[in-house]
Write a structure and sequence with these properties.
single chain, alpha+beta, 7-stranded antiparallel sheet, 5 helices, about 20% helix
Length: about 280
């Protein structure tokens, strides 16, 4: 995956916004509709008439993470005084990893997923303090040219992730495997936990035999295909990706888990945790 690293000062943008949902999949549906509406009501054309600074073309800016209010902007980088016609936001100065691509909005979404799940955990960087930026060099809905700007900062030495991957094949249906792995109510096969508490539509909490709690937040859910979640407790944090593939009457599972210890003294135990967790997963 090719990329470049850039440092930029604070960037002022002018544009329009909508609230973002905490579900990534929901946002992947709503944001394209927002763009369609901006084209039809003429606001996109008005934005393009503003004098531009750091970027020459349209931007999609996702403000999320620790912010209380998640928002998505369609904007341009501009210092022009637009009064009340457009909203104003200042993107903090940051170091950026910049990835290029072309295609539809779906191909851009796939690029963003790959960067977060495949590149970032092994890059030596972690999330920075600025929003994600989509830079549309050529904003053609069917064949756009774009850049994905991810705010990054060097990862602390104690935060380096440990990775585990398991692949296995089972003589069963994709529906059966999916139900066993993703069910939050039928977990009798899990001898490593005593309880699963459902918090909301995308979050749940598992309790170990000693009562230790780990919180999970689902980030991707494509039934019978892909399941991803972030996980965190007081000792470690990480991300899990499960890929399910039917093959000639069998089902192949491909599970990847990235975990880092929050406390330096616990780093030696991360590999043990991953090995143990993988063994439980293979008992399905």
């Amino acid at each position: 995956m090719s990329y470049r690293i850039e440092d930029k000062p604070a960037i002022q943008i002018k544009g329009i916004s909508i609230p973002l949902d905490k579900s990534i999949e929901e946002n992947f549906l709503v944001v394209p509709q927002f763009w369609d509406k901006a084209v039809k009501n003429g606001l996109l054309a008005k934005l393009m008439t503003l004098d531009k600074t750091e970027f020459d073309n349209l931007l999609g800016v996702s403000i999320c993470g620790d912010n209380k209010e998640w928002k998505y902007y369609i904007a341009v980088s501009s210092l022009t005084d637009t009064g009340d016609e457009f909203e104003e936001y200042t993107i903090p100065a940051s170091k950026w990893a910049v990835f290029t691509g072309n295609g539809t909005n779906i191909s851009l979404q796939d690029l963003e997923r790959r960067v977060i799940t495949e590149w970032l955990p092994f890059s030596g960087f972690e999330y920075g303090n600025a929003p994600d930026i989509e830079h549309y060099i050529q904003a053609n809905p069917n064949n756009a040219e774009y850049e994905y700007w991810l705010s990054i900062q060097p990862k602390k030495r104690s935060d380096i992730m440990v990775t585990s991957n398991i692949k296995a094949t089972f003589p069963t249906t994709i529906e059966n495997i999916w139900e066993i792995v993703t069910s939050l109510t039928n977990y009798s096969w899990r001898s490593d936990i005593t309880k699963i508490e459902i918090i909301n539509d995308i979050q749940f909490r598992e309790y170990s035999k000693t009562g230790f709690a780990t919180t999970f937040t689902v980030t991707v859910c494509k039934p019978f295909e892909r399941w991803e979640f972030d996980m965190e407790n007081e000792n470690m944090k990480g991300h899990w990706v499960g890929i399910f593939t039917p093959k000639n009457g069998y089902v192949e599972i491909d599970f990847t888990e990235n975990v880092c210890a929050k406390k330096f003294l616990l780093k030696p135990f991360v590999k043990t945790y991953l090995k143990s967790n993988s063994q439980f997963m293979c008992r399905i």
